[in-house]
Amino acid sequence: MSQSSAAQEQSVPGKATSRKAESRKATSRKAESRKAESGGAEAGKATPAQPSVGTLAAHRPHPVNGGDLDGEYTGKFAAKYAGIVGDIDADPDDYEDEYAPAHAGEELPQGRFLDRERSWLAFNERVLELAEDPNTPLLERANFLAIFASNLDEFFMVRVAGLKRRIATGVATRSASGLQPREVLELIWNRSRELMARHAACYQEEIAPALADEGIHIVRWHELTDKEQSRLYSLYMQQIFPVLTPLAVDPAHPFPYISGLSLNLAVVVSNPVSGHRHFARVKVPPLLSRFLEASPQRYVPIEDVIAAPRHLGELFPGMTVEEHHMFRLTRNEDLEVEEDDTENLLQALEKELMRRRFGPPVRLEVEETIDSEVLSLLVRELKIGEAEVYPLPGPLDLTGLFSVARIDRPELKYPKFVAGTHRDLAEVESASAPDVFAALRTHDVLLHHPYDSFSTSVQAFLEQAAADPDVLAIKQTLYRTSGDSPIVDALIEAAESGKQVLVLVEIKARFDEQANIKWARKLEESGCHVVYGLVGLKTHSKLSLVVRQEGDSLVRYSHVGTGNYNPKTARLYEDLGLLTANQEVGADLSDLFNRLSGYSRRETYRRLLVAPKSLRTGLITRIESEIKHHRAGRPAYVRVKVNSIVDEAVIDALYRASQAGVPVDIWVRGICAVRPGVAGLSENIRVRSILGRFLEHSRVFAFGNGGEPEVWLGSADMMHRNLDRRIEALVRVEDPAHRAALNRLLETGMSDTTASWHLGPDGDWTRHAADADGRPLRNVQEMLIDARRRRRGTATP
């Protein structure tokens, strides 16, 4: 719920990668992994250890590896929703090559990993279940239908496209679950077909009728009154007809290019004189509203307006329109940049974005009433397999329900919640911003968004730093941010006032590339030092460092978080962050930023675990320590909260802990390859998932540690891309009260009295929303909202 930033162009796909390039990338990844395991050159780097000094200009990018779709508010799809997005990794998984040798002497059973593609589809099914739930407010149900559709779009554009590309180039390998690539593809086709049919039925049979009962009507053309049709005819001639371009298909006109995710009409016309039939394609303009208002609270799909008999006749004067059918194509929208050969990553990425729209097709959605001859023509011309054709009842493209969900009917939505200032920043709510530096000089602040205001904490921290004459330097990572970002404005203000400002912009955050290129250029023009990370690695860590002159000394103030520096998504995503003046953390961030912007080779830190070198090994070491504590009779447990967990080395460590008797709790939003509850392997592992009005996005790792609990938070999910191909950072939480609060949060999420989905050993998820007597189980998000309201005396009775 892609808080896919502001609305982007609906079709910008990636090129197909050549066999040679794909093979080179696969070889590079394996070599990188072997290098990391053997303790060789800096882990995670691409083959050239470092570019020579002569090849780098002052702000020349350190190129990064391929894009990712990480479940965050991704560019073009979910700018409009609060809720849930998928978490898709388009890179190949190669467990046998990368991880097996580390524990070659320890036998764990085959088939211990669930299939990640099936797990992702199960995640999106949980989103669909929220739309199907009559206890979910009606417009939120419509929102979840739109989220399901946009999630699936991204899944096909990235994950399915990547799988097909690897099969075609011969680099696909058996998955960790034991399935062959073709078996995985067929599983995806079959399961997604079932879910898409269920999704369409939910709209047709439940949501549309329920909206009509509330006076919100989504109707088809034939259901409009004469007056409404007349009004829309005027609208059509003035605003729609001038931008339509019918494209004929005949010997003189080749089959037109069909852009990804565009809605199209396949129109069959005949010449009344010769009787010859002709095919034409009309693209629905993507920049116009998906649903047009025929009269107050009555909406009609835009394609119905275009396809009305009189309107189509205006496009084909003198011809007879015999039939028309809607279709929608999904293309590969991943992108590839050969970074090792790229002198300027920014320019190369801009060129690649232009090529992206020509990616090969991966899915064709058609109305179930489509004529068989027209369908055969589409399949033939688009060169798509029959298994990739999805007949559905209209209307297609229910991502358009995002606009319906925005209708101003608060009684049909979740009750409004406005976050307040964290009490450790300001004991009393005030119209003036709290003095963040003064607060941090006395104590650390553990933030929990969206329950704690982002604008009066993290945003205020950076805005005050920009305005403070005693602040000498600001260093910042930016992965995704909003189009009108106050964070970017604060950094620009700081640079223009003479402060040293370093901004590490990850320009290859998938589907936000164009926006990040724009901000990178704007920051550079203002005088910020802009860099793009390390060769072969993406910078996904959420870090901010402020250096302030206080008397005769310099004091470092830090923020380490789990979410992006995006004020808009901070109101929709559940995230954690630590604001601190601790000098060990500050020193760690200084060292890490020096590594990101220069040539530092530091690999160990005081309070941080940093990928790709120390994060996986650091967590596995702590899991193994819990086994020792348990065997010695000391308190031991492992508690994990992540978006996704598929890394086999980490999962195997959790299996070994379970076999030793250590209780393991996993709270996961999306993909989970752990198979819990298997006798002799994982009977001490529980897996829960929580979805709701906010997107659960924080990552927390807690260990019993023999009675002295250890808790970490940060940006990393347990996926190969996070642990091997990204700069990720976890910070150790030292304040006992903060550790206790995070452990309480984890215990609440895992409790049997909390509404959640439970994962079984067969990979099936079961929803637990009510107790044995039918009473609703507690909603952890509503509990946290109510706790914040109680602090301000506004709690619900």
Automatic annotation (TrEMBL):
Biased composition (Polar residues): 1-11
Its EC number(s): 2.7.4.1
Signal peptide segment: none
Residues at which ATP binds: 151, 573, 669, 697
Post-translational modification, as annotated: An intermediate of this reaction is the autophosphorylated ppk in which a phosphate is covalently linked to a histidine residue through a N-P bond.
Broad EC category: transferase
Basic and acidic residues composition-biased segments: 19-37
GO molecular function terms listed in the Swiss-Prot or TrEMBL record: polyphosphate kinase activity
Binding sites annotated in the UniProt record for Mg(2+): 480, 510
Disordered: annotated span: 1-69
One matching Pfam family: PP_kinase_C_1
HAMAP family: Polyphosphate_kinase
Purpose of the protein: Catalyzes the reversible transfer of the terminal phosphate of ATP to form a long-chain polyphosphate (polyP).
Family: Belongs to the polyphosphate kinase 1 (PPK1) family.
Protein name as catalogued: Polyphosphate kinase
